[in-house]
Amino acid sequence: MEDEQRRISDCCASLHEHIQKWKKLNASGVRVANDLINLKLQTDYVDGAESWGSLSNVKDLPGRVIAKLQDDVEKKYEELKIIFEALREVHQKMGSLSRNVRAVSQLMWISNGEEASSKPLFHTMTACQFSKRFEQLYDIYTHELAVKETIIGAIPDEQNRDTLTLYISTWLHEPYIDESSIILLESMLIETGLKKT
Q: Are the CB atoms for 88 and 21 separated by under 8 Å?
């Protein structure tokens, strides 16, 4: 039982680390997406400006400004895609942890029978309960990653200011990651003794 406890505890610690990394990446993504959208809006504004003056040296200014802004937009978009890929990597690691915990739970059931696998590993939670919670958290982050992927795909073609603002807000507030996901993680950390109450 000590080996299973150690494995579950290690997986909980790793999951906590991955979620903290996700939070940092998400904050970076919000910053970059905000910059990207502001640049897109500036490009539209400059492109839509009708009067740039009658001086000859000012007439080609809008074209130069637009080219520079479009270049900046592309750079920010690439930066956002890199952040998204880092989030995907974190998500994959969460999936590996979920599979590892499920494997521990199944091995306990196979080697010790149903009675042994229904005993708490630490205080109150069984290996099966840990497995279910890992799976729930993995599913939550799977949905959130899908939302971010949709946003990444939609930003380049979107011109509407309100829709772009909605994308930033959705990225920031992560609608699938709610209080229940925090409680799931906290309960496992407390159960394993990784966090004190």
A: no
